[in-house]
Amino acid sequence: MPVKKFKQHIPEEMTLRILHKLPVKSLIRFSCVSKQWLSTIIHDPEFAKYHYKLAREQQTLSHILLVSTQTSGLESIDLETRSFGDNSGVRRLISPFNEPGHLRFLGSCNGLVFVCQGSYENMSIWNPLTGFLHNLHFPGFLSQGELTFSNHGFGYVSATDDYKVLVACYEREGDEAIGEYLVYSLRANAWAAIEDPPPYYLKTGYTQGALSNEALHWLDLLDEQHRQRILVFDLAKEEFWYMLAPTFEEADEEVGELEEDAELANLEMMDMDQRYWIHIGVFLGGSLCLWLWTADKMYIEFCVMKEYGVHESWTKLFKYSVADDLGLLDINPLRGLKTVFHTESGTVVAICYDKNELIRIEKLENVVVTSRRCPVGEVLEEVVQYDESLLSLIEYENPTQGGNEERDSTQNNEEGASTKNNEEGA
């Protein structure tokens, strides 16, 4: 008797439920299975959105560093790799940009990176995993003199399902700084000037806004009462406002001791010549964080805003000795050290410009472990952290509005948008 062949069939709903739970790199490979899977995985915005939402809720996102060097271009580093000395988590990226060694990373959100080539005239939103590239057509600033580029940022507004970009510049006229802020709405495909912008001189030279709670944040100058402020830009309302940074009395604990969940106490005015906030960032999970450098004891100390917008919720978490834990005996953290990744458990990744290296520091079983990555013969240019996703901007593209006719690289990956095409082995 001939054996009957049964054609097995998995319902489409079940297939989607399985695909939604897979890692993005596996999905990229599986997009080659069939045209239907390619269409679903790569070109279906709703699939990408749900997959990212589920991965974020289940905390299965892959956290990646995007690194640009002066001549060799771009590489990605998987932050799940415990040591920077392990090359298994490093991939060389094929750059879609004309001058990969002259890039500026102006922000990241939902797996997308806001990239600028040189000046603001050449701006793009790029997904380093899939290779999707959306070019922004910048109208330019109204000022005609010599401009200094100021703060910038990139974020997502959930209420309107819109991505927004903020860029700024200022022009000095005598003792005054005349500036201009422009915001771009991807859904409207239009630029608009921000009326009544804030002063343009910020406390630090780190001009990338820290993205938290759908708002961008920068450290600002002291106010009239000598309190340090945080400048906030609400992406939904497109408005600026201020919140106060915390002030601390000098800590008595031993330098380098990890202080897990220690509440801030006795908030007092500190000596700004000895202790001051020098960087603002976001902990893994989205909470706003600050770190300070104490000039006399040479350590950096981190705190987190547990409840967004509530000043009393600032909580001191941990501190590391610059000399003992980081091994930086001759570093000036104000000028030579910038953190690019933080977790509330004590893992920190920083770029050390003075030493031309990346430093990873973490607390493992009460032992501080530090690893370094230094590009041999290379100069580190830019570093940004992003989460891998399949998200693209296909659903926002509307050539009839006149802003996106030249989508050079946007559709280049349609017939196989994969890390094979976008990455080379380290």
From TrEMBL:
**Name this protein carries in UniProt:** F-box domain-containing protein
Organism whose genome encodes this protein: Prunus yedoensis var. nudiflora
Which residues belong to any copy of the F-box domain?
A: 4-50
Which Gene3D superfamilies is this protein grouped with?
A: 1.20.1280.50
NCBIfam families the record matches: F_box_assoc_1 (TIGR01640)
Q: Would the keyword Coiled coil turn up in this protein's UniProt record?
A: yes
Q: Which Pfam family is one of those matched by this entry?
A: F-box
Give the region (Disordered) as residue ranges: 397-426
Q: Does the keyword Repeat apply?
A: no
Q: Which residues form a coiled coil?
A: 248-275
